[in-house]
Amino acid sequence: MSIPVAAEKKKRKYYLIPTYFAVICYVLFLGFPFLWMFTTSLKSPLELLQLDQSFIPKGFYWQNYQDIMEKRGLLNSAKNSTIIALATTVITTIFAVPAGYAIARLRKVFSGAATGWILVSQVFPVSLVIIPLFMAVRRVGLLDTIWGLILVYLVAALPFALWMLKGYVASIPMDLEEAGAMDGASSFQILRRIVFPLLLPGIVATALFTFLNSWNEFFFALVLIQSPEHETLPLTLARFMGSEGQVLLGPLAAGAFLATIPSLLIFGIMQRKLASGLLAGAVKG
Amino acid sequence: MYNRGAWKYAVPAFIPLVLLSVVPLSQAIWTSFTDNVAGFNVKVSFIGLDNFQRLLGDKLFWASFKIGIIWAVSVTLLALVLGFGLALLLNQKLRFLGIMRVLSLVPWAMPPVIVAIMWNLLLRPTSGPIDGILEFFHVPGAKTDWLGDFNTAFPTVILIGAWVAMPIITVSILAAIQGIPMDMIEAATIDGANAWQRFRFITVPAVRAITTALVALNIIWNFSSFGLVFVLTAGGPGGKTFVPALFAYNEAFKYGNFGYAASMGVVMALAIVLMLGVYLKASKREDTQR
Fold this sequence. Notes:
The complex is a heterodimer of chains A (about 280) and B (about 290). Helices cover about 80% and strands about 0% of the residues of chain A. Chain A is mainly α and about 280 residues long. In chain A, helix 1 (about 5-40) packs across helix 12 (about 250-285), helix 3 (about 65-70) crosses helix 12 (about 250-285) and helix 7 (about 145-170) runs parallel beside helix 12 (about 250-285). Residues about 280-285 of chain A have low confidence and may be disordered. With about 290 residues, chain B is mainly alpha-helical. Chain B has a single domain, classed as Orthogonal Bundle (MetI-like fold), CATH 1.10.3720. In chain B, about 70% of the residues lie in helices and about 0% in strands. The interface between A and B is large, with 102 and 104 residues.
């Protein structure tokens, strides 16, 4: 849209004022909440009590971070969240990569049925699926355990991982596999030597997306976890919010900031890939 | 089909998919036809359409259902408008673009619960920074309890919902805009098309397909979303933000009526399918008309 055509260039100057005004509005709307949370996490309890607070903290009160990590059990919740998200990601990827390949390359009837099911499972509200899952997890005695939650996250993550991977496989030209087959490669060799290397960026994107969703997830954890020592990060923070959050503003802000860091890192690396991968399946059909 | 053995690779994933996804979903639908309640060793019996009949007359549920539809549609449309605007800005050659690109992703990267906590703190009446800023500029409405007031709670929650939904829309639309071939725009400019015409006849058609997909996905996600509203308002004040997912959750895990709650889930799923059907058909018709 920005082509340096001479006549246009002169006219564009007038657009700049409203344009930059819009930019400032967006920056404030998107960035202010997060920055405010960060500066709040560095304020001492004394400073937070004052009515006239400045945006920039008077000093760096790192005590908030120590407080939330050590005294409030957030370290344990972070450990739980990490284990759960990592395990979910690894297991989902192991199952989804070969299956995603199969769905993309199978005959129309099968791949259509599989894709249809994936879509159906996305349409059903989690509040519907949670009831039988809750009963199933209770029956096998995994209620209120990390493994029970991993199992449920696997169920939640698998359809979408298949959906993303199917899109990535479809973008790999079939000719390459054909050439491999002609050279006498077995079906496993085709998958291992030809498809896998080309699929690797897509696998990484899918894995990161799965990790992120498990790390952020709240609803299933709320229903399935009861004891504090098995809580995930979002659960612990939500509990603070309700009970003592208004009082413990500094540590709460610190905890919220820490819980966001892994997601921010992943997004920084992956921004383009995530968006295109998410919607690859939707647009290519 | 050059890889004849491909079907074998689907088996290890389809076993858990069937066991953990097909079975629970079918079970959930089955549960909606039973009088299943929480507790151990409860006798469950098939009661046909009784749950649905009861649901039909449940005014509270339909009030919540209406809130859910308004919520899903408003959040999606608001996020679409804001996200489209941001994508157009990010496509310009402007200063501070780098920081804006990063900022535009922040809401997406934050766990929904953290988003809710953060906005809750920001919007605290009198001591929160938003009321502080409004007061500083003498804006009427400062000192409002945005999330606790009957009139402002729902619009405020919708705005926060749009804040969360924006990034994915922005990034996808930006990708579509940047996929427009340069020479197409240049040719149009040489032919005398002004900025509005270029937007109307080049940009809009180019992002149409992705926008349709985005709207559909966002309606699905938002209609059954739970975490944000749960932490922000827990359905209050006075049920003004009581989205149906929250309603079904309470019915199941507060009151233990699994069967009845499952029937709500089934109705919600049907509603989503219906909404999507109407929407996708309408957008298809629009496509063929041009």
